[in-house]
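Hi there,

I know you've been waiting on this one. I reran it after we fixed the sequence typo, so this is the corrected version. Both the input and the resulting structure follow.
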Amino acid sequence: MLTWRESSIEGPMDLRQTLGGLQNGGRDPTFQFTRDGVCSMAFRTPDGPVSMELQGKRARAWGPGADWALDRHDALIGGDDPMDFDPQHRLLKPLHKRRKGARLAKTYRVTRLLMPVIMGQLITWREAIRGWTLFCEHGGEAAPGPVDLLLAPSPKAVLGMPWYRIRSFGLSRRHAEALHHVARRSKRMEEAAFMNTEDCERRLRALPGIGAWTANSAMVRGMGHADAVVTGDFHLPNAIAFALAGEERADDARMLELLEPFRPHRGRVISLILSAGIHAPKRGPKLESRPIY
């Protein structure tokens, strides 16, 4: 058995709260949590594929990309040091105290992050999860090591899928075209991992099919951007306005106004509110969230 490598980050760290956003549904073939809190994931690196197992602040890895992944272990489990985040708000303060171990993951694998987020455009969460699972099962490959996981399709494999094949996964031609754009420009996308928040969003949005919702969703989910704010979402402005100001309805402009005092941690504030399950009172028939880009 491989030796576990211990992280050097200090302070509390909750693995599920930190990495949970990287999992695309409970049956994600590339990422799983076990009942005892062990996290397993498989992904591609510049050195080759890797499968990684994490438990608390420890990690071990298999495959050609093992050293690359372990060298970035601290960043993956939240080496962003949120110690200066101390929200002085009647709701956020106790929420933050209860979730001290929630950090922001930084994966350095931008193309891999963007693919499932793109699939969430304009369809329901359940449809997107099903599409991601089928996409990986049909275009991925077995991960190295003893973990029972798949690697997501490589950019080359994505470009080899015609749009009608991707359509068979329950996605649209629009999804297929956006996935092809990302795969074709994957090297440019990977450069965004080293950019600041504004430049990163600008780089991601330069591609057709990627707008504010997609770019910022990826930046918060696995690029370590604590100040990224997702706009263009149907429900999010209402949830933020209700949590911060007791207002039941809001638009993006009002949400941004309420979040402004929390710079440079607006993304953390959103994560706290969503993790607590806070939402505005619902009125009328139930509507599925259909973000736009």
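Quick highlight: The first helix runs from residue 15 to 19.

Best,
R. S.
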